[in-house]
Write a structure and sequence with these properties.
mainly alpha
Length: 149
């Protein structure tokens, strides 16, 4: 009985964000665990949250290394206001260089609220349209192109 309790405690510790490194790495680690436990549910939530047809979400999942990478492709498409096809192409070319490099290639500026959210892993898979970063808080509104003209 003690071995079962010890094993359960170790599993909880290993899957915690603190063990996974927190930030973006911790978020992605936990998201991969969640996705692999229920891939159809994960795919449906990503589809609903980002307004992308389910077959397209499934196709992107097959094209990337992990389910969390698919989430990040859709997340960066939303943040950069670029089509997800463009993001997946940039991912394919630069995936070994990290999400910060990919974000910069998509026009997300270091120092911006979006870039800080990326580094913190401040995202959520809510399955609700339009709720993907800022941990459910309203998205930061900056003075981007076209404001105050």
């Amino acid at each position: 009985m003690k071995k079962i309790i010890l094993a359960a405690m170790m599993l909880i510790l290993i899957s915690s964000p603190a063990f996974a490194g927190g930030g973006l790495d911790g978020f992605m680690h936990n998201l991969n665990i969640r996705a692999r436990a229920d891939m159809p549910g994960f795919s449906a939530q990503v589809s609903t949250q980002f307004g992308v047809p389910l077959p397209r979400v499934e196709a992107v999942i097959r094209m990337v290394d992990t389910p969390a990478d698919a989430f990040m492709c859709f997340q960066l498409a939303e943040m950069s206001r670029k089509p997800y096809d463009t993001v997946t192409q940039v991912y394919q070319t630069h995936r070994g260089q990290g999400w910060g490099v990919i974000a910069k290639r998509l026009g997300i500026k270091p120092g911006s609220s979006e870039f800080h959210a990326l580094k913190r892993g401040d995202f959520v898979l809510s399955g609700e349209p339009g709720r993907s970063y800022g941990k459910g808080k309203e998205k930061a509104k900056g003075k981007g192109k076209g404001h105050n003209k």
